[in-house]
Amino acid sequence: MSPDPSKLTPAAPAAAAAGGFLPWLPWIGAVIVVGAVGAAAGALGAFGTPEPAKASSAIVLGTGIDALDCPAGAPVAHLVGGERVLALKRSDDSHYVQVRDPYDINQLVWLSAGIVSIDKHEPAIGTLAVAGCPKPTMALDALPVAPVVPTAPTPGKPGHVTPPAPPAPPKETVKPIIIKASANPTTVYNDGATTLSVVASDNVGVTGVTATWSGSATGSAALHLVGGTWQMSFSSSRTDGPSYGNITFTLVAHDAAGNASTGANVVVQRQFFG
């Protein structure tokens, strides 16, 4: 029951106030402070950081590039210089870039960042998300051991046991060799054609030869086997105006095991006459 105001002593109003409104003042102050702190944190972006770039289109520089399974890891694929790739991740020190294998889109491989040129206006390597190879963990639980079932002896040969199957042979790792690479003619005029020829050898067999070219024209293509020689006819015309100068062709031989030869270069000079 509330006290009669006419009978309150001077100390009574203070006590009544303390029992009603005044005890809420510290909590109101706390709410105001918390609200101010939350607003300041939100304004400064304390509850979020910029997301890394998803991917960047790029081109592989050089010739005869080995792609790795991990940063500074073992080779698992071979890329030809001038191939276009999609850069997805980077190592924590940005020395390696994870890209999608242009010959097997289901495989992700790593390249040295120094041989990957990001396209203009694409996110830089340093903005990509950081990734790496998973570290192996030790299994602590013992694996179940299958019971040993004795092999029944062959009738007529008591005690005979079937010998185990021989182990699988090791993977073939010998790289093909380009014996000769040439172009005929070595000088073409306007939109004239030249024929590239490659003679290659391998301990098992050469399954293909690829060519990439740069200079006054760029591109890539596969050669065809003609009478023991890999050949390709090349001609180039441009609709944006005449071009002239050297074209450098890099030729690489491949075998069935995925091994690639060292690239051989052939230079063709193209001249234009209006």
* β-strand amount: 35-45%
How many whole angstroms does the radius of gyration measure?
Answer: 36 Å
Topology order in helix (H) and strand (E) letters: HHEEEEEEEEEEEEEEEEE
CATH H level, superfamily name of the domain at 177-271: Macroglobulin (MG2) domain
| CATH overall fold name of the domain at 177-271 | Immunoglobulin-like
CATH class of the domain at 177-271: Mainly Beta
- Characterize the overall form: flat
Q: What summary fits the major beta sheet? A: 6 strands, mixed
CATH architecture of the domain at 177-271: Sandwich
How far is the N terminus from the C terminus? Answer: 111 Å
- The class by helix and strand makeup works out as mainly beta
Low-confidence stretches: 5-47
> Level of helix content?
10-25%
Helical segment count:
2
Mean pLDDT: 78
Number of strands: 17
